[in-house]
Amino acid sequence: MAGRGPSFTRNLLLDALLDEERERLLEDATTHPIELGHVYLDPGDRIRKVMFPISGTLSIIAEPDERHRVEAATVGREGVANVHSALGSRIAGQQLIGQVAGEAISVEVELFAKEMSEPGRLEVLVHGYIEALFAQASLSAACNAAHHLDQRCARWLLQTHDRADADSFFLKQEFLAMMLGVQRPSVTVAAKTLQAAELITYRRGSITILDREGLEDAACGCYGQIRSEYSRLVPLKPNGRANVRHG
Fold this sequence. Notes:
Elements (H helix, E strand, L loop, with lengths): L11 H4 L3 H7 L4 E5 L4 E3 L7 E17 L2 E8 L19 E14 H8 L4 H26 L2 H15 L4 E3 L2 H8 L3 H13 L3 E4 L2 E4 L2 H7 L3 H12 L14
Antiparallel strand pairs: 1-5, 2-5, 3-4, 3-5, 6-8, 7-8
Helix pairs in contact: 4-9, 5-7, 5-8, 6-7
């Protein structure tokens, strides 16, 4: 992103950096679309870039066998995809796909690792984010095993709403089923339940959040725990906690 300078990007991690850190990191960065359903990495692929979403979301997908694909974690403008490369890895362990359309800033992985090796805000923020991402994946796995589908669906919609630029976003039903690790008919039932409660509308892949507070009441406690862990672990403010809406 040559010539961009220290202006804000809309990615919370990047915008929490000191201007000079952000300028160095973005010197040769590129901005590109996040395309719904596009596969950015498959397991075993070489990691060449890290991606900082500025709108839309990316999904990290785990495949325990050939018949099942389940979301392990979501990455939006609060974070960065392929962040484990900061610890030395250059090989993808999971699939990375576009979940909600938007845009991302890509940075060469070697530059990212070099900047991470220097003490500073980037090092602090990324180490905290890695912990927060692990917490999200752990709580999501427990949630999928322990909680009712309606609650899980509400949690996932809240997490996506936190990262969206509007109350409406596009998502195919079969894609939502994959996110929750269930079959499409089960998602249909859950979506109808939330719609009947006038919490959302869901028509032809377009989801609109009608009642944010009601959706929070319908979700399980995992949503609040994930938010709390991010706020605790990622110090977006130099001397304080992150104070942002995040799922």
